[in-house]
Write a structure and sequence with these properties.
The protein has about 375 residues and is an all-alpha fold. The protein has 15 helices and two strands. Helix 1 (about 25-45) packs antiparallel against helix 3 (about 80-100), helix 1 (about 25-45) runs parallel beside helix 13 (about 315-340) and helix 5 (about 125-135) runs parallel beside helix 13 (about 315-340).
Length: about 375
Amino acid sequence: MDCQSEIEETLKFCEQCGAPRNSRYYEVDAVRSVALILLITYHIIVSFDTGMRELGFIVHSSDGAVQIIQLLSQALNIWRIPILFVTAGMAVSFSLERRTMGAFIKERSRRLILPLIFGSLTLVPLGLVISNFYYGKTLEYIPNPGYLWFVVDIVVIIFLLIPLFIYIKNRPDSIILKFMRRLFNIPGGVIIVFALPMMLVAGIINTECYPCFFNFVLIDNPHGTLIAVVCILMGFIFIRSGIRFWNSVRKLKYICLLMAIVLYILRMVILSPTWDEGNARLPLLVINLLTAFESVNWMLAALGLASAFLNKRKKLLTYMTNAVYPMYMVHLPLQFYLSTLIFALPVAPFGKLVVLVILNVGACLISYEVIKRIRWVRVLFGMKP
């Protein structure tokens, strides 16, 4: 994910030489859009976890139906952020192919840094004010990236890795890319290429909370930082590797999906129920390695399914490509405000969850319709003037 609301014409590459072809990867648009919509929905689901109050969420107790959804959402939890980093790396490849270095920096700054600054100064503090008012706390204005934290990571990592990106871009026939293309021709090769560095990070850091990717300064959470670096690099290399990558993930989409589901069931049914009690049936290292492998399979399945079924121009996809980042920027303050109204209703928690999802997505869409009609506001949300 490159946090831009309007994706430019992208490039496909010749299978033999890696030369660019004028075309568009609609599947990348689709993956990013779906990932952000799922992230918006996930934030609503976790508002029924009372522990999220510590992070400023307006929370509500849950019932059996909500707890089942929360359990299912754990399948998303380990790859919802990494897939955004993967698509960010892909977007860097597209952008660098069409621009000089100066134009690339200017374009990334406008699409990433300006919305980040605007959101950190207005939308994120607004959500905190709503939460503090609801809980009767002191109303404070505290500018911070908040739920836009991953944009900070994307900006810093992309600019730090620019020399490496340029090096790879200028050498389409390099040993690295040739080796990658050969691996992608091997059954399961793309799984190995992606899984090895992800599992290496999981093994070295051996974190007690694999889904905890959250960090602000890139050094306070080595696990999250290294996952971000690996995924951004992988996304960039996947695109530079050309059509062989897409052919590979299309062939493996159902295999990866099946492996991800099996590993998720293993994690939920066998491992998770015993871990909190300190009686995990497997060592933490083994659990982290399996979780990293599961995460990779979810992401490759998503990319393969999108490439197989969503690689075409559709009105809804075009609309969501433009709308999804502005929607994400406004979603949490809207969610907090709507929660203050909906949580007071005499309705079962599951009913409140459904109503909150519908109203919040609707409010986000209405906000986008307003934003896109005001030229100077569009820029603040990463859109073209």
